[in-house]
Amino acid sequence: MSSAIRLIAEDGELDLVEGFLPPAECAGLGSRLLGELAWHGEEIAIFGRRMAVPRLLCWYGDPGAVYRYSGVSHEPLPWDAALAGLRDRIEAFTGRSFNAVLCNRYRTGKDSMGWHADDEPELGERPFIASLSLGAERTFRIRHRRTGKTLDVPLRDGDLLLMGGALQSCWKHCIPKTAKACGERVNLTFRRIVQPG
Ligand SMILES: O=C(O)CCC(=O)C(=O)O
Ligand SMILES: [Fe+2]
């Protein structure tokens, strides 16, 4: 495992740990999560029309770690063993604690996540979020809200991306669609819900 590389140091911190998980572990773990987790689609209302979110997702965590996304409150599913094992390792590495994980599954290059910040009230001020990627490489794009400064970070199998400080209030991020041939990707964002609601 390599050490963290600081990618952003102003108005929040963004750190990348390339190969946090060794390649030998990634393939098995990726297919286990694809098979085991309770993947489902979601819809969001945009201008009164219901639209399918362009990816699959699921939410696991401690009882009470309720999270509101796509306009709906989500009760967590109880920790899956593979997810709990990863949580423990990421907690040991970062010295932070997490009580829930949002899992996103990008089936093809057409699946994506639009511009957003993880700044929901239940994450509290200056949330610390650890994001583990498995499977196909995708680009994580981050843009400063005021200056427009933009950075593209390739996220590969086994990489761990850490977001902290004021990052969510000063920057937005997304996973753009790609026209490149690309396999499935799973991303796990470990979070701490501080204010159940
Ligand atoms: O898939 C990714 O790498 C990003 C996921 C993300 O931004 C989120 O879950 O909030
Ligand atoms: Fe995010």
UniProtKB/TrEMBL annotation:
**Record's keyword annotation contains DNA-binding:** no
Say which species the protein is native to.
Answer: Methylococcus geothermalis
Signal sequence coordinates: none
Q: Which GO terms describe its biological process?
A: DNA alkylation repair
Which InterPro entries would you find in this protein's record?
Answer: AlkB-like, AlkB-like_sf, ALKBH3, Oxoglu/Fe-dep_dioxygenase_dom
Q: Does the keyword Oxidoreductase apply?
A: yes
- MF terms per GO, please? catalytic activity, acting on DNA; demethylase activity; dioxygenase activity; hydrolase activity; metal ion binding; oxidoreductase activity, acting on paired donors, with incorporation or reduction of molecular oxygen
Protein keywords: Dioxygenase, DNA damage, DNA repair, Iron, Magnesium, Metal-binding, Oxidoreductase
Instruction: Please give the Pfam families that the UniProt record associates with this protein.
Output: 2OG-FeII_Oxy_2
Residue stretches making up the Fe2OG dioxygenase domain: 97-194
UniProt protein name: Alpha-ketoglutarate-dependent dioxygenase AlkB
Q: What domain of life? A: Bacteria
Cofactor field? Fe(2+)
